[in-house]
Structures are given as structure tokens and as C-alpha cells.
Write a structure and sequence with these properties.
Layout: H1 3-16, E1 33-38, H2 43-50, E2 58-63, H3 74-84, E3 90-96, H4 106-115, H5 121-128, H6 133-137, H7 143-155, E4 166-171, E5 178-182, H8 184-190
Parallel strand pairs: 1-2, 1-3, 3-4
Antiparallel strand pairs: 4-5
Family: Belongs to the beta-class carbonic anhydrase family.
Catalytic activity: hydrogencarbonate + H(+) = CO2 + H2O
EC number: 4.2.1.1
């Protein structure tokens, strides 16, 4: 049996037994917050529990490293939509210790791509097209600095409401302990 068939089989029972009813909510976050965090599997259930969040409390955006890499990319668009269309009044950027993005070896990643069938000529084609793959895939050295950088990207975005607090936190992926790196309320008072 494949993973897909297992999922579909489970889903059929889930729907028939109306298990979805206990998750009923609206598209608007009850706590009026949007969270950008890492896609790390250790955070899937741990982070919401560590923050006392239930289904429907927050908009949660996940990406590798919780990085806002481009001011007009999909991550920033999602944050802006959450604020302007989905009633989020605060933004939380939450990185974590022991993040895979802190140890990305781009040459190794390229090797993995080739091993899985990517034509090596694609790399030079992209390079000649102006795509800097190493920069695009690069992670970070310090999670605290990465969180601060993403907070600054969001806070200083020309389309962001300057009254919206943008917080930066780091979570420990084993314990769920949160460390405040940037208190968005204080940062707004300073400006």
C-alpha cells in the first residue's frame, strides 16, 4: 500500500465519522495573529501547543528556515494577505535551534539534485540566466540574526501597516521553550 492510498483510506473514515467537526472554525484567526515558522517536522504539533494555540487561532505559514527571502515573494504576500484580508493584527517570525537551514551545503544539495535526475547542464543555464542558485539555496549561520533579518524585512516592507507589531522568537525544537528576540510592541514604541 502506498502512502497516498493510506492517506485516502484514512480520510474516507475521517469524513464518514465526521471527525472534522471538532476542528470547525472560520478562515479568520481567532487570536488575530499570523506566524511564519520553519517547516521542520518537530514543530508541527509542538509549536502550536507551546504557544497555547488551537485550530483556528492563527494563520501559520511554513517555509525552510522561517526566512523572508524576497520582499515580493510568496511568504511576504501571505503575511500581507493575512494582515489586510484575514484580520491578523500581529506577526510572529519564529525560527528554531538546530535548523537544517543553518547547515545547508549548496554543493552537496546540487549533488543530491544530480543524483535524483536533474541535468547538470541546468545549473550553468540558470547561472547564465542570472539566477544565483547558491545564494537562493543558502541558509544562515545564526538563527537569532536570521529571525531579526526577517522581522526587519516584514516591519520595513513598504506595504506593511507600521502599527502592526512584528515579533521575532526562537523555539527550542525539543522542549518548545520560546525565547523573545524582538518584542514587536517595544519596537513599535521606539518608532
Amino acid at each position: 500500500m502506498t502512502i497516498l492510498s493510506e492517506i485516502i483510506e484514512f480520510n474516507k473514515t475521517f469524513v464518514e465519522e465526521k471527525e472534522y467537526e471538532k476542528y470547525a472554525t472560520t478562515k479568520f484567526p481567532d487570536k488575530r495573529i499570523v506566524i511564519l515558522t520553519c517547516m521542520d517536522t518537530r514543530l508541527t504539533e509542538l509549536l502550536p501547543k507551546a504557544m497555547n494555540l488551537r485550530n483556528g487561532d492563527a494563520k501559520i505559514i511554513k517555509s525552510a528556515g522561517a526566512i523572508v527571502a524576497h520582499p515580493f515573494g510568496g511568504i511576504m504576500r501571505s503575511i500581507l494577505i493575512a494582515v489586510y484580508e484575514l484580520r491578523a493584527d500581529e506577526v510572529y517570525i519564529i525560527g528554531h535551534h538546530d535548523c537544517g537551514m543553518s547547515s545547508i551545503d549548496t554543493e552537496k544539495t546540487f549533488g543530491n539534485m544530480i543524483e535524483r535526475g536533474v541535468d547538470p547542464n541546468i545549473f550553468s543555464t540558470l547561472k547564465h540566466s542570472g539566477v544565483d542558485l547558491e545564494d537562493w539555496l543558502r541558509g544562515f549561520n545564526d538563527v537569532t540574526e536570521s529571525v531579526k533579518s526577517s522581522v526587519n524585512q516584514v516591519r520595513n516592507h513598504p506595504l506593511m501597516d507600521k502599527k502592526v507589531p512584528v515579533h521575532g522568537l526562537v523555539v527550542h525544537p525539543a522542549t518548545g521553550q520560546l525565547e523573545t528576540i524582538v518584542n514587536g510592541y517595544e519596537a513599535n514604541e521606539d518608532n
